[in-house]
Design a protein that fits this description.
Elements: E1 6-11, E2 32-33, E3 36-37, H1 38-48, E4 54-58, H2 62-75, E5 83-87, H3 93-108, E6 116-121, E7 124-126, H4 130-138, E8 144-152, E9 161-163, E10 169-173, H5 179-184, E11 188-198, H6 200-204, H7 213-223, E12 227-232, E13 239-241, H8 245-255, E14 269-274, H9 284-293, H10 300-313, E15 315-321, H11 330-340, H12 344-347, E16 355-358, E17 361-366, H13 373-376, E18 384-391, E19 406-409, H14 410-413, E20 428-433
Parallel strand pairs: 1-4, 1-6, 4-5, 8-12, 14-19, 15-18, 18-20
Antiparallel strand pairs: 2-3, 6-11, 7-13, 8-11, 9-10, 9-11, 10-12, 14-17, 16-17, 19-20
Helix pairs in contact: 3-7
């Protein structure tokens, strides 16, 4: 089988800046798309195709990425030794990250050459076009040393990929050709889908440096009179870049992921909305979040009522499931619960849609709508709210305040180092449930 002596590599080192605040605590390749981290969806496709091991480079929030990926993989029954993580203390960009891994892996196996390598991005949610890619690669000629897949380009972009009239070969990138000269040659303007194969000979001659794969691999190959094979995807193929909140929500809506039905959610969900300074001042960074939340001149009770109304009227969608509560939020959650625990008796009295004031902290009992993602995402972008269900840390699972699921906005969970304010407008929420025994 072709894949038995081919490296499979999933790129997972990026910062995910445009998807903040979610990526302040969860690296973008680990954000959930349904029941799995985004990157693990790609890992599974490669494992199913026969790759013995899948390599993932890491940098930003590397420990959290590994933690989420390993927990999810274990839940799916994959042997953890088949997923290898390679941390980059200093981020190397795409080209350097690929070259570093394949050279180190080849040396570890005692090989005299480097295996051909199939590479995909961990933050692209797609049906990887493995069959056409591998079929084309199996039949390639010696001067065909790499392969790229691409999508139709709807609007002009600087990172265009120029493809010949037959759609068989890539001819150049970006400023390598003007729109006029490309049109005169019949070239198609397309966009790289982040699915690629590189021959071992291409990787052997590359140094480990901070350069993109376009500059490090492909432009050099063209200068060497080598050919870059091309696989054409079309608009009907499943392909999503989840780089922004809007594109993330679009992906989930179009994949038509259904909200899970769990008996524990049939109980009332407690929503925590901090609207005023508690009478007993909380830690400084908790006060800072309160200050951000209460920016208007409206009555503080109205602030909390607005939070409740937003929750009840929002078009909710289920974003997915994390297999472990993010470590960056654990201390913050403990502090929030400590503000409430003196008043836990009032929790037992809350029912329906009542609001309780607990030393300046408000608790509302409500229910999440059971709508599936496809109907929930029919709302306009500004109205979108998504929740991620995640188990509480084990040491809090038996706490009296955690006997019912807790719904908390990510903005409220972020600490004082964040510029994000706690707000009922937050697009991202966590539904915290008791961990499974």
């Amino acid at each position: 089988m072709l894949t038995q002596k081919m490296n499979g590599l999933v790129l997972c080192a990026g910062f995910g800046t445009r998807l903040r605040p979610l990526t302040s605590v969860i690296p973008k390749p680990a954000v959930p798309v349904g029941a799995l981290p985004a990157a693990l969806r790609n890992v599974e496709q490669l494992l199913d195709a026969g790759f013995e091991r899948i390599h993932c480079n890491t940098h930003y929030l590397a420990d959290e990425l590994e933690r989420q990926m390993r927990a999810a993989a274990q839940s799916r029954g994959w042997p953890l030794e088949r997923i290898c993580f390679w941390n980059e203390p200093e981020i190397l960009e795409t080209g350097g990250g690929i070259a570093r891994i394949v050279k180190a892996h080849s040396a570890a196996l005692g090989l005299s050459n480097i295996w051909d390598t199939l590479v995909v991005s961990g933050d692209i949610v797609a049906d990887i076009p493995l069959k056409p890619m591998l079929a084309s690669w199996a039949q390639r000629s010696p001067d065909e040393t790499s392969l790229m897949a691409s999508l139709p380009l709807k609007t002009a972009r600087k990172d265009v990929t120029w493809v010949d009239p037959t759609l068989k070969y890539v001819q150049g990138f970006g400023a390598d050709a003007s729109s006029e000269s490309a049109a005169a040659q019949g070239w198609h303007a397309r966009i790289f889908s982040n699915h690629q194969i590189l021959a071992g000979q291409v990787l052997e001659r590359c140094t480990i440096e901070k350069r993109s794969s376009i500059d490090l691999f492909y432009r050099h190959a063209l200068k060497q009179q080598e050919k870059i094979l091309h696989i054409a995807l079309d608009d009907s193929d499943v392909w999503f870049d989840i780089g922004t909140p809007d594109s993330y929500f679009d992906c989930l809506g179009k994949l038509d992921l259904r909200s899970p039905q769990r008996s524990e959610w049939s109980q009332s969900v407690l929503n925590i909305c901090l609207g005023t300074h508690p009478m007993d001042a909380p830690p400084d960074h908790l006060s800072a979040s309160v200050t951000h939340h209460d920016q208007s001149n409206t009555n503080k009770d109205d602030q909390v009522q607005a939070c409740l109304n937003t929750i009840l009227s929002s078009h909710w969608c289920w974003l997915g499931h994390l297999h472990a509560f993010p470590e960056a939020l654990q201390q913050r959650l403990v502090e929030l619960i400590s503000v409430l625990e003196k008043n836990k008796g009032l929790l037992e009295q809350s029912s329906g849609l009542t609001i309780e004031r607990l030393e300046g902290t408000f608790l509302a009992s409500s229910h999440l709508p059971s709508a599936d993602a496809s109907s929930a995402l029919g709302a306009t972008s500004s109205a979108r709210r998504g929740y991620i269900d995640v188990p509480l840390p084990h040491h809090l699972g038996s706490h009296p305040l955690c006997q019912r699921p807790l719904l908390i906005s990510l903005g409220l969970l972020l600490d004082s180092t964040s510029t994000q304010a706690s707000s009922p407008e937050d697009p991202f929420w966590f539904l915290l449930t008791r961990p499974q025994p």
